[in-house]
Amino acid sequence: MTFTLFLDLLAAGLITGGIYAIVAIGLNLQYGLMRVMNIAHGEFLMLGAYLTYVLHTTLGLNPLATLPIAMAALFLVGLLVHRLVLRRLVHSSPNIDVFEARGLVASFGLMFVVQNLALMVWGADLRGYTYLAEPLQLGGVIMPHNRLLVFAVVVVLSAGLIAVLRFTLIGKAIRAMMQAPLGAQLVGIDTARLHPWCFGAGLALAGVAGALLSMVYEISPGMGEPYTITALIVITLGGYGSIVGSLAAGLLLGLVETFGMHFTSPSLKMVLSYAVFIGVLMFKPKGLFAK
Amino acid sequence: MTQTHILEVRHLHVDYNGYAVLKDVSLSVTRSSITVLVGLNGAGKSTLLKAVSGLKAWSSGDIVFAGTSIAGEKPAMLVSRGLLQVPEGRHLFPRMTVLENLELGGYLRSARQRREDLERMFHLFPVLRERTDQLGGTMSGGQQQMLAIARALMGSPKLLVLDEPSLGLAPLMVAEMFRMIAAIRDEGVSVLLVEQNVKQALAHADYAYVIDRGCITLEGPGSELAGSDEIHAAYFGTAAH
Ligand SMILES: Nc1ncnc2c1ncn2[C@@H]1O[C@H](COP(=O)(O)OP(=O)(O)O)[C@@H](O)[C@H]1O
Ligand SMILES: [Mg+2]
Q: Which of A32, A36, A146, A184 could cross-link A176 (Cys pair, CB 3.0–4.6 Å)?
């Protein structure tokens, strides 16, 4: 393998992995924090992608400028879904395990509803637009501008998110809720009040990931599903409730897939992911970074 | 009117799915005193503390804190009113540093109050100052218990509720911890202490209750109970005299 090829694959792997990380952190905010295994997570990614597509192709907005809009819109959708679906389940479930099971079933339903709504509105065709597609040469690696932009946004978003979780009181409270829910309540964190916000933040991350993906790939109503599965793999790898773990595991999975596909075949992408998943479940069921 | 009691539990009945765990429990905690509740495993001590902290609803009776009923109040609300609990098992934030654990203890307080209280905690627990960057989950049992108490004190309690803080600690550590609790009381904080370490707990109690299978069976000043035949028969298998 030449050095240039290595850099090529490395860059591609980090970009894919960065997206995985953002999507997975979003799912981790839902599952790690409140045990909502949101099977519809990828559908919200898809909504973010269509939102950017529509704003760009009909209103002529710069896709980059739509990112905050996609985040805000999906955050509000998150609050709404929490209000209409999850809050009821919290109140009607006798304990957290029953809540988890019911949440899983409810989010399956949500997946079909959202996907089919998108099919009704936009049809099943692949859609796309070109944005910053001209290539850029960087030290032997040739890469379209838009991919670099996606990677830059992913880096900024992850760094921002980690800074919030590390250095602000509310961020520390969210980590506290993940590590010891009862302890969090007993220091005065109103967990019931923060849950909808965290659910919204999870969807906002899915939305912004979708918006970013629309800059480099074609989009369709079914595009979200594989990302849900990948996110599930990543949060298992990185540990439930560990944001830094999700980030590291997302990047790792992106690299494994990219290098693996190069040396085997692109059609083996999901096989590679599942192999990693099964390996972790067998040998490190508490996540790669658990001590 | 100033109440002499910071906490009053009145004819409390609590059940789990219809199975009665507390039956007509009444007790009170005098301001700036240590009140001890002892009882065998499964007697209902932790259940009572859960009810006191807003974590478990009761079926009848009432709990009055600082003159107001706490019925229906969420734990966070009670924390803001000055009712802090160190639960069974501590529930520290294991992958956060000592400093972060303490900061979160002052979650509902202002940044300035947090800074001042932090300094007080380091003064009270010098071992924590040396370990500000250590992860909570990696400390020894005794240090974790100190951290758990310090985290609760960061919430500026009027009443500090402790569920078996001596559990699993080495004897020297236990003695140190009881001294600590007495010092906290001397600063004006009222303490409700649940213990299975009956001898030491009664030695430090201003007033004590014995709970047996969900009922209060005995009460009195700590020194008096420590010498009672019932206590000795139940916990040490001998009579006092
Ligand atoms: N979550 C629960 N569900 C059902 N029963 C419980 C639960 N928690 C405690 N109990 C029962 O309530 C009784 C009192 O428990 P607990 O208050 O923990 O006692 P203690 O703290 O004095 O050891 C025990 O019989 C216990 O089995
Ligand atoms: Mg107990």
A: A184
Rounded to whole angstroms, how far apart are CA atoms B100 and B102? Answer: 5
Model confidence band, residue A285 (pLDDT cutoffs 50, 70, 90):
confident
Domain boundaries, chain A: 3-283
**Into how many domains does chain B fold?**
2
Residue B1: pLDDT band with limits 50, 70, 90: very low
Residue B155 near residue A187 (C-beta atoms within 8 A):
yes
The Cα of B153 is separated from the nearest Cα of chain A by a number of Å equal to 10
Q: Are residues B23 and B56 in contact, defined by beta-carbon separation less than 8 angstroms?
A: no
Do B53 and A186 make contact, defined as CB atoms within 8 angstroms? yes
- Please give the Cα distance from A231 to A36 (Å, whole number): 13
Size of interface A-B (CB pairs under 8 A): 69
Contacts of B238 (CB under 8 A, 6+ apart): B232
Cβ <8 Å between B103 and A172? yes
Q: Are residues B3 and B19 in the same domain?
A: yes
Does some domain include residue B88? no
Query: Is B195 in the A-facing interface, judged by CB distances under 8 Å?
Result: no
How far does A243 lie from chain B, in Å, by closest CA?
A: 12
**Residue located via tokens 């259940």:** B47
Residue nearest to atom 21 of ligand 1 (CA): B46
Judged against a pLDDT cut of 70, whether residue A288 lies above it is answered with: yes
Candidate from B55, B74, B100 with C-beta closest to A172: B100
Domain co-membership, B147 together with B166: no
On the CB side of A134, CA atoms within 13 Å amount to 0
Predicted-complex ipTM score: 0.91
Q: For the domain that residue B195 is a member of, what is the CATH number?
A: 3.40.50.300
Q: Look at the pTM and tell me if it is higher than 0.95.
A: no
Test A187 with B105 for CB contact under 8 angstroms. yes
For B27-56, letters b (16+ CB in 10 Å) and e give: bbbebebbbbbbbeeebbbbbbbbbbbbbb
Fold of the A3-283 domain: ABC transporter involved in vitamin B12 uptake, BtuC (1.10.3470)
Bridge pairing between strands A135-138 and B19-30: unpaired
